[in-house]
Structure formats: C-alpha cells, structure tokens
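Tokens for chain A. Residues wanted.
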C-alpha cells in the first residue's frame, strides 16, 4: 500500500473515530491529515476532490434525520468534509503555484 493511500485511510478512520470520541485537538489533526492528503492528489483527481469537498461541506447534515444513526453519520461526514476541505485548500495552493512558476500551464 502506498503512502498516499495510507494517509487517506488514516484520515478517514480519524474522521470516524472523532465522530464518537471528543478530543480537544481533533480539528487540528483532521486539518493536518487533510493537508497531508492533499499533497498526494494528482492533477486528474483535483476536480473530483474539490467537488467532494464542496458537497460534503454543504450536505453533511442531510442524514441527520435518520433514526438512531443520523447524528453519527452527520458527525462522520462533517469530519471527513473537514479533511477534504483542508486537502482542497492545499490543491488550490499547489495549482496556483504551478501556474505561477516559469514553464507552468
């Protein structure tokens, strides 16, 4: 398993764990994992990542009404949305730098 897949898996597992466990630095850990994950996003997957980040940011509470598990699903998707938002932020910065560098697109 490659390093990028391991980081993405750890970020997803952290999003699940922090939905059930309260921790003071959970948001920081999710942000750092998101930034680390964003570093490994290849050019052809950048658009998909940004679309996923937008949709999770907007719609993570859609499952809140599901009896018994809605609250947990909302927390999991909100946490994973935070990971994708941080990854998306780094993707935007990297794309900007690539365009500004000599020889860029």
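Reply:
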């Amino acid at each position: 398993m490659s390093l990028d897949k391991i980081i993405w898996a750890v970020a997803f597992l952290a999003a699940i764990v922090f939905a059930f466990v309260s921790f003071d630095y959970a948001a920081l850990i999710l942000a750092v994992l998101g930034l680390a994950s964003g570093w490994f996003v290849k050019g052809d997957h950048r658009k998909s990542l940004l679309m996923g980040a937008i949709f999770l940011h907007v719609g993570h509470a859609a499952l809140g009404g599901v009896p018994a598990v809605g609250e947990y699903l909302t927390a999991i998707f909100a946490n994973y949305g935070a990971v994708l938002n941080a990854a998306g932020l780094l993707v935007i910065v990297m794309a900007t730098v690539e365009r500004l560098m000599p020889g860029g697109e």
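The mean pLDDT is 90. Residues 3-100 form one domain.
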